[in-house]
Amino acid sequence: MQGSSLLSFAIWVPIVAGFAVLTTGSDRHAGVARMVALAGAILGFLVTVPLYVAFDTSAAGFQFVQLKPWIEAFNVNYHLGIDGISLLLILLNSFTTILVVIAGWQVIQERVAQYMAAFLFLSGFMNGVFAALDGLLFYVFFEATLIPMFVVIGIWGGPNRVYAALKFFLYTLLGSLLALIALIYLYNASGGSFSLADWYQLPLTLDEQILIFLAFFAAFAVKVPMWPVHTWLPDAHVEAPTGGSVVLAAIMLKLGGYGFLRLSLPIVPDASQHLAGFVIALSLVAVVYIGLVALVQSDMKKLIAYSSISHMGFVTLGIFIFNPQGIEGAVIQMVSHGFISGAMFLCVGVLYDRLHSRQIADYGGVVNRMPVFAALFMLFAMANSGLPATSGFVGEFMVIMGAVKVNFWYAFAAATTLIFGAAYTLWMYKRVVFGPIANDRVAHLQDINLREFIVLGVLAIAVLWMGIYPAPFADVLHVSVDELIAHVMQSKIPAP
Prior knowledge:
- With about 500 residues, this protein is mainly alpha-helical.
- Helices cover about 70% and strands about 5% of the residues.
- It contains 25 helices and two strands.
- The protein has a two-stranded antiparallel sheet.
- A hairpin with a 4-residue loop joins strand 1 (about 65-70) and strand 2.
- Helix 2 packs parallel to helix 5 (about 110-130), helix 11 (about 230-240) packs across helix 16 and helix 17 (about 325-355) packs antiparallel against helix 19 (about 390-405).
- The two termini are about 40 Å apart.
């Protein structure tokens, strides 16, 4: 579909809604700010639904394309379009924004308008990343996402929020600067074009491709984050408010995986294959080693943060084994991880709002006071462990099946996450939820209210739906993934 404005609506509706929220002013009008934010988030999701409904799963190439001149002096265009990969991530992003607004409804009492607006801006910027087909436009949106999250962590975060916000910002910014150098090189190599389609056809030498790949890797590996550039994530999660942790885990980490799929693989396919073993090794270290690190955590948020790093190792593993099961499994894993990690952080937020502690040792016997919460938390814990019939199983199983076709030992090492994931997740759940009531503060806990039940209930439905019937998610990927693999496997190195 050409000439559609749907993608522009997906980007700019939440951004405009964010500005509308800011006009509500001080906290005296906090109720109005919340209502405007919720309306903007819902409208932002509704304008993305036609993208899925009208998406042609049998067509190759990008759909809903929009092309307008932007900076004509440098041949920069406002060029948008999506394939099946970006479609799922846009839907996930817009869906998550609604839940984050509802989750912060009563928790955030200061600077409410600014808090809600930050997430609406973030939603629009991330949709811009997923829809951009111009290299500079991609970079602008990619960098713009740093600002709202930096503000959210730095203002509404915990005691060490300034340190965590600066570490998050500097890690991601420094990696992105190397990517910017690669973009400028590609601009010159293509004769003055920022179009991704032009860059996909560039006849670059292997040495050129390797240098460009490493520049992109610096930006996207930090964003995923891959071991050993992952250390900013636990700090950011621990200090961020619940909504910040949800969006960071559910959406922002996916920008790294998406960058590999949209830029690294198609622009420098030979270097991607040449360095695949290096990326796979780092991915397996994340799956195994970070899973063991999660086992020894005493802070619930930090445990889930390390769990995210381990599970995202599956994403990069799936991408760099270059077969349909692997790449489709990686995308499914990204969407599934968005549901599960978001739900896990929301569950920790529910407990923190009541006891103001994230330490596992401060809990015990929660099921005696919060049975409905305990049931939902159990579902998400099982999904995080990769239980069949939950979304956590689908992507991991597909990646393991794809890995078996490449190297049995890749699959064997990756499959250990099913053991480690169950160990650290269920051990945490057992210590927090089961057993006798640990102390007087736990004895006075109250079960989740209607607002919390709606947010967690919707995510529970999503986790089960994707686990039992993943076809609606997988069907939109087949053609896009096949086209990507065919492009990558066709060498672009010029003949000597």
